[in-house]
Amino acid sequence: MATQxxxxxPVGFLGGTFDPLHLGHLRIALEVAQQxxxxxxxxxxxYLPPHRQKPLLSAEKRLAVLSKALESCPELSLDLSEWQAVxxxxxxxxxxxxxxxxxRKQLGNRPLVFVVGDDAFAAIDSWKEYQVLPELCHLVVxxxxxxxxxxxxxxxxxxxxxxxxxxxxxxxxAAGTVQRCEVTALDISATQIRELLAAGKSVRYLVPESVLxxxxxx
Length: 218
Fold this sequence. Notes:
The chain is α/β, with parallel strands linked by helices. The protein has helices spanning 23-36, 59-70, 81-87, 96-107, 118-122, 133-136, 154-161, 190-198, 212-216, and strands at residues 11-16, 40-45, 76-78, 112-117, 138-143, 178-182. The chain is globular, with a radius of gyration of 17 Å.
């Protein structure tokens, strides 16, 4: 997409199954927004992930947890465009490229920033139609300090090929760059939380306090 003057600021998206949401998700979204000056940062829940088993938590439960958590985090919001597309029969599986195409139609030429974790980005060439992603969005890779992508990988090549140039900013390009953003390394996983819940153990301090009752209810 050609360099151009854009009248509206960037919109950032952190996608995920959020099965369940935890503090690591929120911290990544918040730090990327603050570091890169993205005033509109949204969580984009995946209704039906194509590359993993069906989520353990129901769709209703995941959505309730997300909504409750964001009540106390005004810097972040919830985007249900993918959710609605599935419920309305417009989509069956939550492939990122399909979600980005829907978002691009909604946003026009407004900069679209998609945040992805370093582990997922390392396997970007396994994603559906991955080659077109830079045409649809800016990719921001949330990395841990000191993390290195596999040498010779498509992911490593993209960081060089699509690195922002001095004149590139989210205010003059709607898409087309790939860059790293180092974030605080919180060693929390949704798998860990699901295992604790299944064993009847507390997940306090791993998830927002406001959602504890929702997650621990029988």
